[in-house]
């Protein structure tokens, strides 16, 4: 499920429904609706978009995850929720999400140590490289962040994030990540089918 985790909001691309459908057809394995930034959809518009994107994901058998907004995740019966260190605490909402996928962001070992991972299905570790898709991203940890996190916890599923492309993905997987997540390398791709295929080829 974590192999190729596409994350997108309406701000990341011109036509999110078209881009998501192309990415699903090409074989992404997980999708996160991350609707934030200037001009982002809110309220009913955000909910209607979430319903449409979830329907697309369901058609292709790919789990639909909501970023940050657990109320939206409940409203649209998403398959899971991704929360960061500054978001609502998993312990406070977990009762509302039995049997759902729970992701947590971990950028360094201090954050890992202070996180309760009891209900966490995967950790999003990054940024690995510089990213222009998140204005408040922390300092990139490079490939070493993944390598050390893998040694720190040998069991937890790790999805790497931040500045990942087809060119650096292989090193990240070799460093111990179970999968990679990306916004711009798919949302801004001029050939989604080929780029997705190139990513998935690393797992063969
Ligand atoms: C898979 C994955 N990993 C990390 C993040 C970042 O979450 P967060 O730190 O809460 O930042 P925002 O995405 O909410 O800006 C993520 N969304 N997904
Ligand atoms: C959403 C997000 N979270 C990050 C983290 O480090 O937690 S980096 C990031 C943006 C990833 O976008 P791109 O693939 O375009 O670099
Ligand atoms: Mg968040």
Automatic annotation (TrEMBL):
Residues that coordinate or bind Mg(2+): 68, 87
Reaction(s) the record says it catalyses: 2-(2-carboxy-4-methylthiazol-5-yl)ethyl phosphate + 4-amino-2-methyl-5-(diphosphooxymethyl)pyrimidine + 2 H(+) = thiamine phosphate + CO2 + diphosphate; 4-methyl-5-(2-phosphooxyethyl)-thiazole + 4-amino-2-methyl-5-(diphosphooxymethyl)pyrimidine + H(+) = thiamine phosphate + diphosphate; 2-[(2R,5Z)-2-carboxy-4-methylthiazol-5(2H)-ylidene]ethyl phosphate + 4-amino-2-methyl-5-(diphosphooxymethyl)pyrimidine + 2 H(+) = thiamine phosphate + CO2 + diphosphate
The keyword Transcription regulation is assigned to this record: no
InterPro entries with a match to the protein in the record: Aldolase_TIM, ThiamineP_synth_sf, ThiamineP_synth_TenI, TMP_synthase
Name of the protein in its database record: Thiamine-phosphate synthase
Cofactors demanded by this protein: Mg(2+)
Domain of life: Bacteria
Claim: Transferase is one of the keywords in the record: yes
Lineage: Bacteria, Bacillati, Bacillota, Bacilli, Bacillales
Organism: Macrococcus bovicus
Role of this protein: Condenses 4-methyl-5-(beta-hydroxyethyl)thiazole monophosphate (THZ-P) and 2-methyl-4-amino-5-hydroxymethyl pyrimidine pyrophosphate (HMP-PP) to form thiamine monophosphate (TMP).
Pathway membership, UniProt: Cofactor biosynthesis; thiamine diphosphate biosynthesis; thiamine phosphate from 4-amino-2-methyl-5-diphosphomethylpyrimidine and 4-methyl-5-(2-phosphoethyl)-thiazole: step 1/1
Protein EC: 2.5.1.3
Amino acids binding 4-amino-2-methyl-5-(diphosphooxymethyl)pyrimidine: 32-36, 67, 105, 134
GO MF annotations in UniProt: magnesium ion binding; thiamine-phosphate diphosphorylase activity
Gene3D superfamilies (UniProt xref): Aldolase class I (3.20.20.70)
Keyword terms: Magnesium, Metal-binding, Thiamine biosynthesis, Transferase
């Amino acid at each position: 499920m974590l192999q190729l985790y596409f994350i997108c909001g309406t701000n990341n691309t011109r036509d999110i429904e078209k881009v998501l459908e192309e990415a699903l057809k090409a074989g992404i394995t997980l999708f996160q609706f991350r609707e934030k930034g200037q001009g982002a959809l809110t309220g009913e518009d955000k909910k209607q978009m979430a319903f449409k994107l979830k329907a697309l994901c369901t058609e292709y058998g790919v789990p639909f995850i909501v970023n940050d907004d657990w109320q939206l995740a409940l409203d649209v019966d998403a398959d899971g929720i991704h929360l960061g260190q500054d978001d609502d605490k998993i312990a406070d909402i977990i009762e509302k999400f039995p049997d759902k996928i729970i992701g947590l962001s971990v950028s360094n070992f201090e954050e890992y140590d202070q996180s309760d991972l009891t209900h966490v299905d995967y950790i999003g570790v990054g940024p690995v490289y510089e990213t222009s898709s998140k204005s408040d991203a922390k300092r990139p940890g490079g490939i070493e962040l993944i390598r050390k996190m893998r040694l720190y916890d040998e069991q937890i599923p790790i999805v790497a994030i931040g500045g990942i492309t087809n060119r650096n993905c292989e090193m990240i997987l070799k460093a111990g990540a179970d999968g990679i997540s990306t916004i711009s390398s798919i949302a801004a791709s001029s050939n989604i089918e080929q780029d997705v295929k190139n990513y998935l080829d690393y797992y063969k």
